[in-house]
Amino acid sequence: MRTFRQRSHLLFFRGAIRYAAFRGDLLARLIVRTGDQNPYPIYEQVRARGPVARTSLGPVYLSASHGFVSQALRSPELSVVDSEPPATGPLRPVQDSFLMRNRPDHPRLRRLVTPWFTAKALQQRREALSGIAHQRLDELAGQKSFDVVQDYFVPVAVRVICELTGLPLKDWRRLAALGDILPLSTTNRIPSERQERLLQTRLIDLDAYQDETVRSGTAPEGSLVAALTDRATDPNALNRNDLIATLGVLLIAGFETSVGLMGHLTTRFVEHPDLRRAALGDREVFLGTLEETLRFEPPVQFTVRRIDQECEVDGVRLKSGREVMLLLAGASRDPEVFPDPAEFRPDRPNSKAHLAFSGGEHYCIGANLARLESEVSVQALFERHPELRRAGRPRWQPSQNIRAFRSIPVSP
Ligand code: HEM
Fold first, then answer.
1. What is the model's pLDDT at position 6?
2. Which of 6, 8, 11, 393 has the least C-beta neighbours within 10 A?
3. Residue 94 pLDDT class (50, 70, 90 cuts)
4. Residue-wise over 343-378: b if at least 16 C-beta within 10 A, else e?
5. Does the pLDDT at position 237 exceed 90?
6. Mean pLDDT score, 295-324
C-alpha cells in the first residue's frame, strides 16, 4: 500500500509528464501512450530530429535511426542498466537475470543455456512442437469461437517452454498466469497500485514455483532445468539467485513475446486471405511474411542502454552517465534501410535487417525458437481452420514496450 507521501509524489510526476507530453516532448508522449495507441508517428518524429532526439524529462537520448541503434547495441561503451537484486522479496526475472547484467556475469550465465537454443538443437524439436500445437487444437475442436491468443497461443507457447526446459507440462496453467509479469515489468508508465500488487503476487508465485521445481529434483535428465540445477551445486557456477532468475527469464521473456508475434501474423493472414493462401502453399512466402511481421510490428518496441564513457556512435558524441532509449520498432521502419517502411511487403529483400531481436551481446537468445514455434503453430492453426475469421474486437496488452494483442476472438 502506498503512503500518502508516495501517492502525492506520483501524482506530481504524472502531472509533470502529462504537461511535457502536451508541450510535445517525445519521451513524455511515449510514456503517456496507452498500449492500444499507435506509436509509429512518435517514432517518426524522433527520427526526424536526427540520429538522436533529446527530452526535457532528464539526461536521456532517444533514437529511432537504424544506423544509430544498431551501432549503439554493439558499442562497448554502452551497457545495460543493471541493478542489485532486491534485499527482500522475490527476484525479478527481467531485471535480475542475465538480460540486464553486464560482463563478466552476462556471458557466464548466457553460455550455460545457449546449447538449448541453437538452430540445430531446435530443428530436432520441430515435430514435438508441431505435436503440441495440434494437441491444443484437438482440445479446442468443436468450439464455435475462441480467443486465439489466450486459448491457443498462450497454452502452446507455455507448453513449448516446458518441453524445452523440462518443466512439467501439467503446470502450464499456473505458468500461463505468470504472463502478466513481462508487460507489467517493461511498461514505462507509472503503474497503478493494482498493477503493482498484481506484479508482486505474480513474482512471488514465480519464485515459489521455481523453488519447488528445483527442490523436487524431478526435471528429466538432460533437460535445461536439470542441467542448471546440477550446476547450482557448484557455487562458482551458479548461485540460487542466478538459477532462479535464469529460469525466470526464459519463462517470462520467452512466451508473451512469441505470443505477440503469433498474434500479429495471424491477424495479417485473417485480413489478407490471398497472402494466407500463398504463404500456406509456399514456405518461402511464409517465412518472408513472418520476418516482415517482425520488422513491421515488433513485439518488443524498445530497450535502454547506459553510456558508461563519453563516446561517439554513428557520428553523435554521447555524454557519459546518460541513458539512451533505443526504439527497436522505430529503427525497423527507418526509410534509409527499408524503402516505404509503412508498407507491409512479404517479399521485402532485407526484412531480416530488422532489430526486433535487438543486437550485439544481448541479441535475443530465443530468436530461433520464436521463429520456429510461430511458424509451426500458425501453420497448424490455418491447416485446421482455413477459413478462420474475426469474432470480436482484439484487445492490446497494456504495455508500451510489449506490443502484442492480449486477446483476439475468432471463429473457425
Ligand atoms: C518474437 C519473440 C521474441 C522477441 C520479439 C524477443 C525480443 C527480445 C529482445 C529485443 C531482446 C534484447 C533486449 C535488449 O537488447 O536489451 C531479447 C533478449 C532475450 N530474449 Fe527474447 N524475444 C522473443 C522470444 C524469446 C524467446 C522464445 C525466448 C526464450 C525462451 C527469449 C529469451 C530471451 C532472453 C533470455 C534474452 C536475454 C538475452 C541476453 O541478454 O543475452 N526471447 N529478446
1. 64
2. 393
3. confident
4. ebbbebeebebbbbbbbebbebbbebbbbbbbbbbb
5. no
6. 97
48-55: long-range contacts, CB 8 A cutoff, minimum separation 24 = 50/316, 51/313, 51/314, 51/315, 51/316, 52/316, 52/318, 52/324, 53/26, 55/20, 55/25, 55/26, 55/27, 55/28
DSSP letters spanning 14-62: HHHHHHHHHTT-HHHHHHH--TTS--HHHHHHHHHT-S-EE-TTSSEEE
Pairwise CA distance, residues 205 & 5, whole Å:
29
Kindly give the distance from the C-alpha atom of residue 365 to the centroid of ligand 1, in angstroms, as a whole number. Answer: 6
Grid cell, residue 341, equals 517502411
How far, in Å, from the CA of 356 to the mean position of ligand 1? 9
Is there a contact between 293 and 268 (Cβ–Cβ < 8 Å)?
Answer: yes
Q: How far out from the chain centre does Cα 275 lie?
A: 26
- Distance, CA of 320 to CA of 312 (rounded, Å): 11
Question: Domain segments of the chain: what residues?
Answer: 37-411
Q: From the alpha carbon of 99, which atom of ligand 1 is closest?
A: 40
> Does ligand 1 lie within 6 Å of residue 359's CB atom?
no
Measured from the CB, is residue 398 less than 6 Å from ligand 1?
no
Interatomic CA distance for residues 160 and 158, integer angstroms: 5
d(CA 407, CA 392): 9
The pLDDT score that the predictor gives to residue 187 is 67
- Between 2.60.40.1930, 3.40.50.10750, 1.20.810.10, 1.10.630.10, what CATH number should domain 37-411 receive? 1.10.630.10
CB atoms within 10 A of CB 251: 23
